[in-house]
Design a protein that fits this description.
By secondary structure, this protein is mainly α. It has 2 domains: about 110 residues, no CATH class; about 55 residues, no CATH class. Helices cover about 45% and strands about 5% of the residues. The protein has a two-stranded antiparallel sheet. Helix 1 packs across helix 6. The protein is extended. The two termini are about 50 Å apart. The relative contact order is 0.10.
Length: about 220
């Protein structure tokens, strides 16, 4: 609803063409094939080159012109877009800046649905590697299987866009999750210890973030 000069607000509708179940299936499968896309989406971030995934499947997530955006308004102005539709465009622009996943919803899928499907695919081992990312078959001469003892070691430089260093999203710490410490003494003593540990924990957390950011800037 958009309030104009009249007493009653005008009814504005705005929508994009949604993708079919099959088209979304292709898109999500393509997203699951590259760790960078899955990592960012599972972390609640929109990859900057997300449009490449849709283009690979013959689709476009972002509308490139007004012909791809459908709208109508109940006002008497014959122009489309009218000023009321234009006002919604501005508000949508701000909304996209706050939450770019709204575009997924306009195309027919909620962010939660896409993330759940990605988790299912990557967790169940259904990821299909394309020709560029497929691993060497064990039957090829010279293939060396991974060493179990070095599973947690990684000596190569990580892709910078894959590493995101940021402060914790909330103020809750592991101490809040664990609850009160059963000291077996007075409640006051337990509170003092918890407050002291909480101060240490937050200082260490802040220091770790600063060290990480410094290393990132140096790299």
């Amino acid at each position: 609803q958009v309030q104009g000069t009249q007493a009653e607000p005008y009814q504005v509708e705005l929508w994009l063409d949604t993708f079919t179940e099959e088209e979304w299936g292709y898109v999500i499968e393509t997203l699951s094939q590259q760790a960078i896309f899955s990592a960012k989406l599972l972390a609640g971030e929109m990859p900057y080159n997300i449009e490449d995934v849709f283009a690979k499947n013959g689709l476009r997530l972002f509308p490139f012109n007004l012909d791809e955006v459908h709208s109508r308004c109940s006002c008497p102005d014959p122009a489309n877009p009218c000023k009321h539709i234009g006002a919604v465009y501005y508000m949508l622009g701000d909304r996209f800046s706050e939450d770019p996943f709204v575009l997924f919803q306009l195309r027919g899928r909620l962010k939660e649905e896409i993330i759940a499907k990605l988790r299912h695919i990557r967790g169940s081992g259904e990821v299909k590697k394309d020709s560029k990312t497929s691993q060497v078959s064990p039957s090829i001469k010279g293939y060396q299987p991974p060493v179990v003892s070095g599973y947690w070691q990684y000596n190569q430089q990580l892709e910078s866009s894959l590493v995101v260093i940021s402060p914790p999203p909330g103020s809750e710490t592991v101490l809040d999750v664990l609850g009160p410490i059963p000291l077996g003494t007075t409640a006051t003593a337990a509170d003092v210890v918890m407050q002291y540990l909480d101060t240490i924990y937050k200082n260490v957390s802040d220091r770790a973030v600063l060290m990480g950011l410094n290393r990132e800037s140096e790299g």
